[in-house]
Amino acid sequence: MLDIFIGNCRLCCIDNNAKGAVIKQQCKELLGVNEDEIYLISQGRLVSNTSVVSNGSVHVCLRNVGGKGGFGSMLRAIGAQIEKTTNREACRDLSGRRLRDINEEKRLKTWIAQQVDREQEAADNKQKKLERLCEPPRHEFKDEAYENERSALPEKVEDAVLQGLKVAEGKEGVKRKQATTSNVKKKKQKLWLDADEDFGSTSGEDSETDTPSSTSQCTKTEVSA
Q: Which pLDDT score is estimated for 175?
């Protein structure tokens, strides 16, 4: 028996080895629709009017009436807004090569062909530049006072430097003399201070040594008395 479904609902059962036209006639009687408004699917395949379904299940599907509607007018409106391009380099020629690659090859060939001309032009420009540099200047500056002052300036600078060195050497000599005299004075003061300290230390020792003798004499006089 063949089970006939519409959606998830079981519609009816018919005998095996039934043709598609018979199944459509049965669905027409049960659903009240024309045969042109439905189509049959069995095991994922479309069932025609002459095909025979031996076993399994048959699904009845309703045809949806549709069409492009306003889609064509929408495409025409969008096409009018799109800017047309003249870049065809992404296209291919009859041999399958892209026009971009062909144009690049042509540009490379022309660049290689013009390499000699570019080198010659660069050499000519360099030669012209050297000739311009070797040419005598068009404008000359002549001023005798300026020339005399410029020639005398190095001598003046040298004299000023020598005088400055002499003055610096004189100041350094005076500073050295003052430093030596101050060092001598410090040394002499230190010697006198050391002598005073030595003298004080010796006098202190003498006083300390004298005190026990005086105390002993005092004790002797007291005993004799």
A: 66
- Say if strands 2-6 and 9-14 run parallel, antiparallel, or are unpaired: antiparallel
Amino acid making up residue 204: G
pLDDT digits (tens, 9 = 90+) for 146-189: 888 888 888 889 888 988 888 888 777 666 666 666 665 555 44
Q: Which two tokens stand for residue 188?
A: 């002499």
Which DSSP string corresponds to the chain? -EEEEETTEEEEEE-SSEEHHHHHHHHHHHH---GGGEEEEETTEEE-SS-EE-SSEEEEEEPPP---TTHHHHHHHHHHHSPP----TTSB-TTS-BHHHHHHHHHHHHHHHTHHHHHHHHHHHHHHHHHHHHSPPSS----HHHHHHHHHHHHHHHHHHHHHHHHHHHHHHHHHHHHHHHHHHHHHHHHHHHHHHHHHHHHHHHHHHHHHHHHHHHHHHHHH-
In degrees rounded to 5, what are phi and psi of residue 141? -110, 120
Residues 122, 3: Cα–Cα separation, whole Å = 91
For the stretch 56-84, what's the b/e string if a residue is b when 16 or more beta carbons lie within 10 angstroms of its beta carbon?
Answer: eebbbeeeeeeeeeeeeeeeeeeeeeeee
What would you report as the CA-atom Rg of the chain, rounded to the nearest whole angstrom?
A: 65
pTM assigned to the model: 0.31
22 and 48 Cβ atoms separated by less than 8 Å: no
Q: Which of 39, 75, 73, 79 is nearest to 59 (CA)?
A: 39
User: Is domain 2-64 in CATH 3.10.20.90, yes or no?
Assistant: yes
